[in-house]
Design goal:
Layout (H helix, E strand, L loop, with lengths): L4 E12 L4 E10 L2 E6 L7 E6 L4 E4 L1 E6 L12 H4 L5 E7 L7 H8 L6 E7 L46 H10 L4 E7 L10 H15 L2 E5 L7 H5 L7 E3 L18 H9 L2 E3 L9 H9 L24 H9 L5 H6 L3 H6 L17 E14 L5 E15 L2 E2 L4
Parallel strand pairs: 1-4, 1-5, 6-7, 7-8, 8-9, 9-10, 10-11, 11-12
Antiparallel strand pairs: 1-2, 2-3, 5-13, 13-14, 14-15
The structure holds zinc ion.
The site of zinc ion has 5 residues, from loops.
């Protein structure tokens, strides 16, 4: 008989939280989709068979926070160099571009990469082009505009929300409407260094208007947020995403005694998505451990991936973030769920992506758990040594084996 399938992965251990599968199974792909998932599928039924014994097959990983507007936004990286080699088949750019540059971002970057890239438009027309200055320590004071008195502004960087005139609601709405299935929502960074304190509430109010007008969602960066998280939650609905939720600067999730604040638990119960965004200066190892011990797990794991740069020499990929959190108290099943099932839900792709159900998009990640001695550190250089690591071995995207050539 003629072969029915394009690719067959044989003898792997399938771990798919959407179907509650955690056992040895074979999986076949046809025409870019997952075609069959059975205890055993004969090799003669497929044009190509890959033996993946000793490996784990998960749905294609989804990284909901990365920065890919390369050559335009300082430190943005190339999606195909950091996603597909690491088992990430789908990613979301978290507000690197504002509406003014979005057509260029889509045409020159999103459409040129093999990685499936979705995006959030930055509420600020500037996107993340305005950024940290690299001109040394001693330069003059900045000029205050609407971000508050000049003394409140960080002289080392020009934040995209320091001047509220850049927070352009109508244009952000149009950008989302003009780019269905690509622009999924709106991103804001409310951060002492990026918005200043005075602009935090106006930014939240404007982002809410954008999300409501487009039936989309907000992702809000809360590292170094200058107001209590309880205030931020007032502007968020179920399905909105709080990224850098385990940051350890002021106004974090813990109270003075180290307990998770009740309003944080309430927000999670209400359906607000807790995302990691593991840029090292935006998460704390001890705080993460403490939250997990108190049963507050992240909803989604994500990398916040960029290029390395002075002051950020270590950048974690998604499998590294998963490995880190597995060594901070989460199980393998939990870290996979937070990088597939809940990530797909967060970006409203439930049933299409983040699953190995027959009929869904044919993405899969083949990984291996390696034992050894590994170290991970946070922005305060607090280090942990770990005994297990997730190593990406093979990536299938749209029913095809990805290779770098
Ligand atoms: Zn980011």
């Amino acid at each position: 008989m003629t072969a029915q399938y394009d690719i067959l992965l044989k003898n792997g251990h399938v771990l798919d939280p959407t179907q509650g599968i955690n056992q040895k199974k074979d999986i076949a792909f046809l025409d870019g989709k997952i075609a069959l998932l059975e205890d055993s599928i004969p090799t003669k039924h497929s044009r190509k068979t890959v033996d993946v014994s000793e490996n784990i097959i998960t749905p294609g990983l989804i990284d909901i926070h990365g920065h890919y507007f390369e050559h335009i936004v300082p430190f943005a990286t190339r999606a195909d160099s950091v996603c597909l080699p690491n088992g990430v088949t789908t990613t979301m750019d978290a507000g690197s571009s504002g509406w003014t540059h979005f057509d260029g971002f889509r045409e020159f970057i999103i459409e040129s990469q093999q990685t499936r890239i979705m995006a959030l438009v930055n509420l600020s027309a500037l996107g993340m082009m305005a950024s940290k200055r690299n001109i040394g320590e001693n330069f003059g004071p900045t000029i205050g505009i609407s971000g508050g008195p000049s003394t409140m502004l960080n002289p080392e960087r020009v934040g995209e929300l320091q001047d509220l005139r850049f927070a352009q609601v109508e244009e952000a709405i149009k950008c989302i409407k003009d780019n269905p299935n690509t622009v999924l929502g709106v991103k804001i960074r409310i951060d002492q260094d990026i918005s200043g304190e005075a602009n935090v509430i106006p930014a939240l109010e404007r982002a809410r208007i954008v999300a409501d007008a487009t039936d989309s969602f907000i992702m809000v960066h809360v590292a170094r947020v200058p107001i209590p998280l309880s205030k931020v939650f007032e502007y968020l609905n179920p399905g909105d995403i709080v990224t850098h939720i385990f940051h350890s600067a002021e106004n974090n999730i813990l109270d003075e005694k180290g307990y998770v604040r009740s309003e944080v638990k309430e927000a999670k119960d209400k359906g607000i998505i807790f995302d990691i965004g593991a840029d090292r200066k935006n998460f704390g190892i001890n705080l993460s451990k403490s939250a997990i011990e108190q049963d507050i797990l992240p909803s989604t794991l994500s990398s916040d991936i960029t290029k390395t740069r002075p002051g950020a020499e270590i950048i974690y990929t998604l499998p590294e973030v998963m490995s880190l959190y597995m060594n901070l108290g989460m199980t393998l099943e939990e870290v996979i769920e937070c990088s597939t099932k809940t990530s797909a839900k967060a970006i409203r792709q439930e049933g299409l992506l983040g699953t190995l159900k027959p009929g869904s998009i044919g993405d899969a990640s083949i990984i291996k758990i390696e034992s050894g001695e590994f170290t991970y550190s946070d922005g305060e250089n607090y280090e942990i040594s770990a005994s297990r690591k997730i190593s990406p071995k093979l990536t299938i995207k749209d029913g095809k084996i990805w290779n770098s050539e």
